[in-house]
Specification:
Order of helices and strands: HEHHEEEEEEEHHH
Mean pLDDT: 86
Distance between the termini: 35 Å
Oligomer: single chain
Structural class: alpha+beta
Strand content: 15-25%
Number of strands: 8
Length: 199
Amino acid sequence: MSNGNQRATPNAQSNTTNDPLVSPVTAEQFADYLSLDYSPSDDVLLNSHLLTACGWYIAHMNNELLQRDYSLKLDRYPTQSDSFNGISPIAANIKPWAILPLYPVTAVASVLVDNVVAEFETDLDSKPPRVFMSTGIKIDITYTAGYPTASDIPANIILGINMMAGYLYEHRGSCDIGHAAKESGAASVWGYNAMILSL
């Protein structure tokens, strides 16, 4: 006898962008934060640490920085949550929306359902943002996530990027990214409280 979890079919998704990652902190601003004499010849080194910190922030906080366009593809809609199991199987719960994995979302450009343009409604103020549309399969949602300009990004996010990138710069070659996020204090500034377990 199969239980509810065995009968539930996963809803695979991908969330991709072709836009390059751009740091809201410039190399010159970062050099000033580090109290370094800025030289354009240092841009590659400084930007590599900034982009590493930005990438970690986006991946672990599910927040975008500067605006980029994304394509979210789902096997079907509505999405299914994990089923319960126990004495008797309970079918997976159906959600009446698709969740956009990044925040903030400034616009949803289009929704394709079975390769056909579909009507949709959005709730971009919720976190995570949501898109409502009719039932279907092969969903492709094109949306824009991120802040319009660097000055629109909350100060604590910019501070955390500088802190983490600064730690990576000072300890280059002797620390990993996760260690830098924790030891620099950036993760605390961002409110990231994931428990890290090791064997």
